[in-house]
Amino acid sequence: MPSREALIAFIGGAPAPNGEKPPARVTKRDIARAFGVTGAAKAELKVLIKDLQNEGAIARGRKALHAQGMLPSIVVADVAERDRDGELIAKPVEWDDEGPPPRILIRRSRAKRDTAPAPGLGARVLMRVEFNPDAAGKEPAYSGRVIKILEKLRARAFAVFRKADDGSGRALPVEKRSAAREFVVPAAFAGEAADGDLVAIEPLRESRFGAPTARIVEVIGSVRSEKAVSLIALAQHHIPHVFSPAAVEEAERARPVRLAPPREDWRSLPLVTIDPPDAKDHDDAVHAALDPDPANAGGFVVTVAIADVAAYVRPGSALDKDALERGNSVYFPDRVVPMLPERISNDLCSLKGLEDRPALAVRMILGADGRKRSHRFHRIMMRSAAKLSYEQAQAAIDGRPDETTAPLLEEVLKPLWAAHDAVKIEREKRNPLDLDLPERKLVLDKEGRLAGVRWPERLDAHRLIEEFMILANVAAAETLEEQRSPLLYRAHDAPSLERLNDLVEFLGTIGVKLAKGDRVRPSHFNGVLSRVKGQAVEALVNEVVLRAQAQAEYSHENYGHFGLNLRRYAHFTSPIRRYADLVVHRALIRALGFGEGGLQDMRAGELAQVAEHISAAERRAMAAERETVDRLVAAHLVDRVGAIFPARVAGVTRVGLFLKLVETGADGFVPAATLGDEYFRFEEAIRALVGTRSGVTYRLGDSVQARLVEAAPFAGALRFEIVAEQANAAPRRTRKAQSEPRDRRPSRKGARR
Fold this sequence. Notes:
Distance between the termini: 50 Å
Shape: globular
Oligomer: single chain
Largest sheet: 5 strands, mixed, barrel
Helix content: 25-40%
Number of helices: 16
């Protein structure tokens, strides 16, 4: 039997003891052959591999194994940049581990017989990669050869063009990594680009002297107005934002659905929508009433109605193809890129007040203890009694009704809150992961500039809608499983052992223990969160616990939802903005005989491809939204260079500190070289940078005062330096620092925060 270390090394690309090199895709059969495991010992080998998977040391791909935190032998990658020597560098398209994705040096033989295709910047390629064990701590640690060019993207790299009077100009890159690296664009290579245009550039051959040069290969659009700042993220992440002519034509031809069997008439039921005040599409409505059944005393009948998007968007149509390509709507501070045209999303499917709209509804019978006793789905025609905001509904319950909510208070709103009180009982028993992570909302002025940052209060109205949507999503998954129908689950795996160990180590540095048994549960994390409630480290611990979690995804296979502590879960409640929900709607329509618009025959492999695509689209949207917020905040702070801000250390690496500003939640970076006139070593065990001479320590979670040194608006990058600490924020010393001579130790001027 191979040792654990030898097995991980072989899967990671190292040769076996007999000299046999691993193939491109390592399988269990390859491992058995390479290490000479035969007969009954193969069962023991399978157990060892399973243990390593459970611990998070290795991960399983579609058909092969690869070491956790390492790339498999065959990857799909984007050619992202050139290094200082002019060599092409690629980055993997998929990278689920913590930290930035590894960089891959593209090797190309000088021999004439080398027929490997030559990609350009921006190309997506299939590569065979190798890890260089001698490159530990260096970049790039991987190198590889291109097997096939999958897609040639016209955009090599993105930049904002600043035009000079003579027609030449400067290209300011929009990526944080290269924020300080400008390109000179000679007039002959500027094309039709105007000042302030977002452009795609291709770097030219670099010289030893002067700034690098580039040529403009595509003009994307103008970003002279802050209202267009999201255009950078759309181009950079290749997010489609223009509907095909065929999809637009289908949307304009669509007419309101008429009431006809098997659709039921529920227009007399006073369902209401409760959404943010600025919402334009309303895809869910709710209603609750006491259950009249004497056998369910104190119970409730809760109804959740969801816009019937499947009535308008049929499988295989142009609308369907565009929606699948987008995967979901993308929400920027300055614009929304909808999954469906506005004629569908904001009009025909939106559950507008006092207008007839088609919907799929689930009627759930809840006991007085909040447990769901039964449920049933219906395809209906509804008429929303009112369009309410969260704040408006909450104010009515708190005794401040307005002219809209006053007539609804007794018959509609109070029963909703009473039903929610019952649901909270069941939620407490289920004990899902209860993170407290306030969301910031950017307030823009009429010109699209950042006017301020708000941290909206989380209300009972928010929790009510959230819990009712969870109930409906569970009911959808249960019904489709009972009908043996294919569906897309919203799956969330338990944290890997590796991430758990990292979390345990971090919590130990602040004196908090994570009590867990053989199987970790959300309640274990909730115990930690409750212990730090109200303490200075509360926000930090919430963030670190979040980082320890696996990423939720869509899957055609069910492995439960860890965070919600649910055995089965599917997204059903937002088909206007999520393609996964539309698939679930179609599956329900077909399984329950609800008429037209049902799911077409799909093999498991096809459903798996859809799940993989929309999961990637979700991650793409999240990255684009986050980067756009960073750019708006950086533009807001560009006039405050030199100002000092209170901040918290949100990340510690060998190269420096990542900060989060208290005022705006903005992220910034402090290079380690600027921390002082000494070398700072990285102490991974305590997540800290420690001065080797003075023992000055910067640790994850520390409160600091930071001076803004540089703001790069188009890249969304902020660079800071730490200013002299106050008396009550004196640096702490590690054990190693305390063992140094007395005359080299800094005096302790204050208590530990």
